[in-house]
């Protein structure tokens, strides 16, 4: 078990062996992971750091200054981390002792005397000392490295816990200052900086001390000549500091751009269905490309700095040695083997520290300071007050609730809240989400809440309903039946244990509404706040929910029901009518036009509560017997690749950044740079008399080619990342809607945040370093074989062992890394889902439970991350121990003085290079799993082309004639058919209402028309077969007002007109038509005002009006309204309907609605049931059939409402044609388009209107 691990080398050698044996035989699964250690649990670490942050906030408040998150982090971790500094110092001191002992050993060989037994004894001691140093370094380095990585992991996990905890507490005004994308970026990229920071941070103080000690030793070895080399090293330190500051600047810019890109990606994935129906993929692609291009510019600049850093590291030792010995020779000294190799070894001991570790520490420090500042800004955002009895209201909402200041009301058993529109604000104030301007709201008892826009989270349906409560089978069964979910559960593949996708994408709108209601009902609450739960379901299901649930299970509980359906008001104990100023009106005569139905319902005292219940009982048998289940898609598990990363994957990765010619040039430059590097030291020893010329030339070439190699390499790899991101995003935009329905948003965002982040930063550095070290290793082997050929006898078997170990390690390490990627996705999905349902979570007081779920996701990820760290140490320690054995064997071998110096120098170099090269190559393969995951999303199934060779006429469609000819439709190839054999014609300028019970296929009709999945059969628009057109040519010519209005985080102008096709005058006119002009004019920058995320600074009704303004601007002949008024108040509904009648009088309009009064004045009504057309005729004709579905739906609205609907149906006129002859002519034209004869069975629902429409008498004339 992982709990057995300690810093003991024995444990490192043993406890992971069973896991590696399993990983070598088969792929690892989550069940193979060990439980996370208590010290790494997210909750423990988060609460510890949170306590220090709270203490810092209190202290700063007293001192009237801004709290410093950096100080809190330091106070929390400085003790444990300082202890690691001591071990860092010991390790670096050991590296210095090693070359000193090497010098003594070489001097023995230079003055070798076979009879000098005392010298031999000392040489053995020196050899023993070197051996112990090698073994000590092999063990201590990895214990130290592992513990510094643990420290970074603890900081990262603690910060993630705090960030999520803060997100659950954000006030509404604070949420307007941040976005989901920014929080995802904080959790993915910002906190990950601390994983690297802790590894290098101690070198900021160890480095200067090490330089001072080496200076003293070099002075004793070569005298004043060492000052030149040390001076150059000291010069590099401020240079690296400047580089670090520049990294900080670029990191700040990149972080902001990454926030914007991920925020946009979050909105794109969330609103993909709307984007596709609007054909807005291109403007969003341009927006993301703009952010990504700026991000790449800053990334390229920082990569060039890294290239300069790596080139400096690559050639610094050679320049230092050149300058040092040039001065040494000029001062009249003679070069000896011992002086050369001791000097080179001492410089080598501090080269890593000064040119790599010190610079890396500065780079990570400045980047981490930027991240801390960003996290601190987030943690300082305003929180929602924790007092549940007294709520404080932000100023911007005070005008809504100000007239409640002097009023009070006691809630009886059942209160119905009637619009116009501040009813949700009233519930929000009760919940504490919208505090009051004055006064208090006192709540006695536990609240529960069903939100207006249904919210479900990724998980099983049972989890969504129980919401943390224990399962009571009897109660659970009762709730399922009351919420009309029983039949749905029976038809699902896994029943209520079926996994649902992110945002409930696999459920229909009606199913989400019922699950949302069932969650509230299952809670043992004292007061139930129900915010319009009946709007998303049809009248039949709505009646069932009202009677069996709201007035059934909850009959003994206080309920506040917000509703637009006035037929249910008679059973209310009290009715609260809210005006715009939120003044409560008790039941009394109301004369406003918007509440005329309320007056008519209340005007007849004889129609009492008892009469309503009698009427309800009469319908019970019909309701209970006819409720049908809806089709549900099932969320898919995230896949993982198996086996090794193929060579083809590496080739695709490199080819994404450059063509073949550039890659060949890169290869040649790498070889030349390595050749010049490999022969530097041998030239100094073998050609000592001419070293000034040869060594100088090789050093200059090393510097030049090293710089060119690094810059070219980084350029290619950054371009590869840029290209793969573009390909992935383009593929995502072209993926069918079904992909987004079954894949959680966190899974997609994980690719665009963490995986792309690793490809942007970590992979290029590791890739370049691995290639560089591998080439250096090959170069050292070649040169050593030329000088000391027999060294190959040891090198070859050790190389074989290394490669076997690498293969054995990677079998397990790759799977661990892949598991790390898949266990990271739920963290982001949970964050995104929690932010969407924040009001519900807080209403249920479930913050701690969601925090616990987040911690569980983090702990699962920590299990894989911890295993990744420990397995890397397992591998690296074995490599270092093998290298130590290799060098020890060489030390005790007998060689000549010059040869032993060269051999030992190369052996020590190989010890580091072998293990580092193998480790880095393994790390490259691990990081390539991110490329693999991105590549997976570049090869997704694509929908039909956006444009084809067949382009419609510019004025198409000029009439708006739509014909369905034998259409069958399903959302996926293996999914059930949701529309069956549909044959129907929608005539030009005809207004058609589409109704049906929940799950009847109404929204599927829209999906088929927009080809969100490819339908079988034929759909014609003005005689043109839509399947032959490009998707954009089709979708741009139809307008839709969707059920869920989607606004994006951009300007109002871009939300209305992303293609910049309309003038300012047209935009303002469209806003005027929907009565939003005054609202937009009051915004700070008017049309250029940047909207909040998802348009959250607008109400649902206002967002719906913006969608209507979009439709007005597009001026298309076909308009589809998909439940657009389900969640808006009657006043907004009336405004939308009036605008549609006026602005779209010459258009073909299809209106899908649950509110029958919305479509009762349509020319014809299509009744769908189970994906088939049950009736298609004029409203009044349909109402003449008592057995018809439409008749029953009307009757279920209540007696008074049914009478009003019948009266409205009688008044329907025929505005779209002046004569029946003209109508029949249009129908004949439709038949000619499809080569059908009159009387064709497929025209069963398209019979001449002279036969289908009833006679209407108006002013003595018969139509």
What is the compact description of this entry?
This protein has 1263 residues and is α/β, with parallel strands linked by helices.
pLDDT averaged residue by residue: 76
Helix percent band: 55-70%
Total DSSP E strands: 20
- N- to C-terminal separation? 85 Å
What does the largest sheet look like?
Answer: 6 strands, mixed
The share of residues in extended strands comes to 5-15%
- The strand order across the widest sheet is 2-5-6-1-7-8
Structural class: alpha/beta
Q: Quick one: overall form?
A: elongated
Explained architecture:
This protein is an alpha/beta fold and 1263 residues long. Helix content is 62%, strand content 7%. The chain contains 46 helices and 20 strands. A six-stranded mixed β-sheet has the order 2-5-6-1-7-8, with helices on both faces. Strands 14-15-16-11-17-18 form a six-stranded mixed β-sheet. A hairpin with a 2-residue loop joins strand 19 and strand 20 (1261-1262). 52% of the residues are buried. The model is unreliable at 1-10, 388-412, 581-597, 599-635, 683-689, 1213-1224 and 1241-1263 (pLDDT under 50).
């Amino acid at each position: 078990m992982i709990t057995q691990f300690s810093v003991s080398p024995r444990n490192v050698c043993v406890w992971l062996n069973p896991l590696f044996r399993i990983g070598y035989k088969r792929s690892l699964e989550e069940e193979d992971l060990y439980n996370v250690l208590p010290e790494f649990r997210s909750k423990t670490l988060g609460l510890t750091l949170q306590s220090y942050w709270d203490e810092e906030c209190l202290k700063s408040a007293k001192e009237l200054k801004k709290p410093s998150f950096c100080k809190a982090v330091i106070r929390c971790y400085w003790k444990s981390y300082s202890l690691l500094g001591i071990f860092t110092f010991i390790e670096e001191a050991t590296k210095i002792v090693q070359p000193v002992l090497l010098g003594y050993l070489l001097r023995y060989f230079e003055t070798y005397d076979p009879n000098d037994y005392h010298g031999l004894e000392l040489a053995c001691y020196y050899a023993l000392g070197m051996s112990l140093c090698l073994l000590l370094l092999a063990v201590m380095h990895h214990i130290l490295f592992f513990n510094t990585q643990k420290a970074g992991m603890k900081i990262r996990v603690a910060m993630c816990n705090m960030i999520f905890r803060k997100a659950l507490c954000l006030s509404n005004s604070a949420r307007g200052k941040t976005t989901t994308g920014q929080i995802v970026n904080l959790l993915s990229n910002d906190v990950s900086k601390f994983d690297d920071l802790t590894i290098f941070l101690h070198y900021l103080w160890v480095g200067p001390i090490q330089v001072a000690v080496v200076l003293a030793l070099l002075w004793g070895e070569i005298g004043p000549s060492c000052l030149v080399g040390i001076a150059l090293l000291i010069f590099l330190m401020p240079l690296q500091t400047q580089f670090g500051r520049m990294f900080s600047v670029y990191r700040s810019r990149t972080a902001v751009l990454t926030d914007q890109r991920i925020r946009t990606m979050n909105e794109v994935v969330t609103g993909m269905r709307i984007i596709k129906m609007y054909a807005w993929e291109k403007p969003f692609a341009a927006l993301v490309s703009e952010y990504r291009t700026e991000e790449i510019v800053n990334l390229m600049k920082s990569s060039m700095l890294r290239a300069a850093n790596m080139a400096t590291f690559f050639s610094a030792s050679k320049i230092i040695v050149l300058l040092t010995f040039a001065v040494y020779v000029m001062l009249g000294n003679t070069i000896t083997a011992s002086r050369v190799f001791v000097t080179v070894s001492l410089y080598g001991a501090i080269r890593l520290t000064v040119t790599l570790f010190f610079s890396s520490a500065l780079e990570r420090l400045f980047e981490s300071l930027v991240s801390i500042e960003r996290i601190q800004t987030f943690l300082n955002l305003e929180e929602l007050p924790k007092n549940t009895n007294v709520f404080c209201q932000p100023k911007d909402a005070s005008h809504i609730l100000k007239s409640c200041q002097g009023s009070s009301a006691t809630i009886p058993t059942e209160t119905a809240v009637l619009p116009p529109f501040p009813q949700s604000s009233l519930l929000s104030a009760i919940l504490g989400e919208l505090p009051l301007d004055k006064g208090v709201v006192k709540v006695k008892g536990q609240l529960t809440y069903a939100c207006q826009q249904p919210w479900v989270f990724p998980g099983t349906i049972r989890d969504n309903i129980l919401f943390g409560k224990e399962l009571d089978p009897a109660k659970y069964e009762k709730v399922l039946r009351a919420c009309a979910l029983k039949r749905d559960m029976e038809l699902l593949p896994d029943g209520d244990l079926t996994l649902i996708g992110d945002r409930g994408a696999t459920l229909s709108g009606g199913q989400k509404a019922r699950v949302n209601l069932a969650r509230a009902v299952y809670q043992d609450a004292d007061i139930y706040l129900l915010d319009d739960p009946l709007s998303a379901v049809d009248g039949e299901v709505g009646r069932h929910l009202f009677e069996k649930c709201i007035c059934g299970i909850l009959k003994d509980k206080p309920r506040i029901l917000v509703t637009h359906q006035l037929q249910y008001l008679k059973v209310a104990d009290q009715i609260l009518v809210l005006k715009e100023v939120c003044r409560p009106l008790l039941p009394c005569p109301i004369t406003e036009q918007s509440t005329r139905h309320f007056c008519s319902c209340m005007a007849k005292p004889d129609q009492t509560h008892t009469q309503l219940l009698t009427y309800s009982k009469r319908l019970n048998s019909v309701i209970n017997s006819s409720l049908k289940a809806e089709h549900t898609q099932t969320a898919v598990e995230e896949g993982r690749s198996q086996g090794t990363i193929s060579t083809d994957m590496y080739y695709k990765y490199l080819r994404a950044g450059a063509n073949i010619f550039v890659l060949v040039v890169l290869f040649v430059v790498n070889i030349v740079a390595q050749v010049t590097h490999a022969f530097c030291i041998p030239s100094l020893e073998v050609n000592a008399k001419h070293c000034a010329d040869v060594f100088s030339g090789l050093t200059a070439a090393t510097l030049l080619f090293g710089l060119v190699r690094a810059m070219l390499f980084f350029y290619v790899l950054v371009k590869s990342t840029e290209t793969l991101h573009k390909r992935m995003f383009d593929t995502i935009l072209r993926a069918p809607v079904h992909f987004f329905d079954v894949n959680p948003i966190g899974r997609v965002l994980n690719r665009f945040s963490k995986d792309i982040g690793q490809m942007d930063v970590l992979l290029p550095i590791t890739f370049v370093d691995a290639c560089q070290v591998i080439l250096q290793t090959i170069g050292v082997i070649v040169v050593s074989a030329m000088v000391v050929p027999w060294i190959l006898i040891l090198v070859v078997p050790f190389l074989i062992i290394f490669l076997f170990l690498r293969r054995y390690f990677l079998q397990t390490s790759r799977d661990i890394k892949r598991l790390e990627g898949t266990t990271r996705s739920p963290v982001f999905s949970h964050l995104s889902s929690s932010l969407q349902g924040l009001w519900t979570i807080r209403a249920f007081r479930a913050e701690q439970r969601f925090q616990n779920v987040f911690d569980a996701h983090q702990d699962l990820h920590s299990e894989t991350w911890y295993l990744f760290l420990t397995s890397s140490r397992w591998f690296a320690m074995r490599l270092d121990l093998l290298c130590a054995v290799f060098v020890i064997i060489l030390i005790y071998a007998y060689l000549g003085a010059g040869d032993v110096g060269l051999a030992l120098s190369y052996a020590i170099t190989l010890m580091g290079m072998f293990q580092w090269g193998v480790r880095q190559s393994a790390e490259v393969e691990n990081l390539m799993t991110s490329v693999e995951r991105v590549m997976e999303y570049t090869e997704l199934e694509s929908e039909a082309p956006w444009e084809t060779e067949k382009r419609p006429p510019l004025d198409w469609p000029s009439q708006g004639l739509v014909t369905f000819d034998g259409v069958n439709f399903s959302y996926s190839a293996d999914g059930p058919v949701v529309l069956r054999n549909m044959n129907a014609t929608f005539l030009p300028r005809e207004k058609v209402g589409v109704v049906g019970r929940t799950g009847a296929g109404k929204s599927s009709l829209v999906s088929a028309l927009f080809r969100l999945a490819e339908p079988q059969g034929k759909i014609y628009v003005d005689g043109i077969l839509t399947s032959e057109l490009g998707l954009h040519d089709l979708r741009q010519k139809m307008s839709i007002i969707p059920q869920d209005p989607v606004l994006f985080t951009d300007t109002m102008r871009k939300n209305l007109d992303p293609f910049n096709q309309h003038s300012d005058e047209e935009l303002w006119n469209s806003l005027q038509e929907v009565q939003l002009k005054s609202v937009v004019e009051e915004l700070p920058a008017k049309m250029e005002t940047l909207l909040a995320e998802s348009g959250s600074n607008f109400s649902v009704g206002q967002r719906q009006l913006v969608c209507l303004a979009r439709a007005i601007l597009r001026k298309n002949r076909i308009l589809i309204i998909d439940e657009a008024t389900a969640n808006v108040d009657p006043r907004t509904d009336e405004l939308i309907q009036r605008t549609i009648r006026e602005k779209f009088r010459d258009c073909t309009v299809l209106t899908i609605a649950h509110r029958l009064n919305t479509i009762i004045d349509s020319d014809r009504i299509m009744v769908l049931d189970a994906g088939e057309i049950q009736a298609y005729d004029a409203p009044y004709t349909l109402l003449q059939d008592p057995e018809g579905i439409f008749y029953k739906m009307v009757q279920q609205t209540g007696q008074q409402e049914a009478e009003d609907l019948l009266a409205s149906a009688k008044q329907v006129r025929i505005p779209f044609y002046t004569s029946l002859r003209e109508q029949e002519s249009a129908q004949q034209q439709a038949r000619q388009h499809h080569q059908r004869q009159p009387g064709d069975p497929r025209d069963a629902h398209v019979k001449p209107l002279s036969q289908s429409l009833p006679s209407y008498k108006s002013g003595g004339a018969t139509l």
